[in-house]
Amino acid sequence: MREVTAYAWVPEVAQGFVKDLRVRWALEEASLPYTERLISLEEKTQAAHLARQPFAQVPVYRDDDADLFESGAIVLRIAETSDALMPADVAGRARVTSWVFAALNSVEPFVSNVTSTEIFFAGEAWAPGYVVKAREMLHLRLARLADWMQGRDFLEGGRFTAGDLMMASVLRDLERHDVLETYPALAAYGARCTARPAFKRALDAQLKAFAAHVPA
Fold first, then answer.
1. What is the CATH number of domain 2-84+198-212?
2. What are 39-73's pLDDT values in tens digits?
3. CATH among 1.10.10.10, 3.30.499.10, 1.20.1050.10, 2.20.25.530 for 90-196
């Protein structure tokens, strides 16, 4: 049986955005059942968890043959066994893999520079000047992606893949900001991806766990 390790509860600002959501979404798209292993925020730094995730994060994932961490690696692991997330041909699978890495390496760091500063460091003296530059760099990346999406429903044309799952997850972090207002094609793309029933089931599962473990 597949098992996803996730947090039992996080503060409200992070609910719906913790990265086990990506894994839950992939499993839902692939119609693969799974169980949860929920840990507290304190448990993430304990030896048992660090033995599986050296950086004290979630998600962690195991199935009958593998035990791994990092959301991108896990999603690719799931996608490799699912026609719903990755095409059968070698060239198509390579393109999907490229897009998963593009979401994580070419877009997400620039998103995080903006979102982390505005959420966690807004009161710091250096934050206003830094976030201006961070937004400039982010806009360069989003403009490139928006150009690519012109005339496309998904990254590789007409079908949703693991690449779209990861890219939409990254872009979704901008929902609490005003950045995507400049890029209607990207806003529509993200909405198209997160309107999928599998995403809604995954989000409901994460939020249900948080609701059941609110600290006393």
1. 3.40.30.10
2. 999 999 999 999 999 999 999 999 999 999 999 99
3. 1.20.1050.10
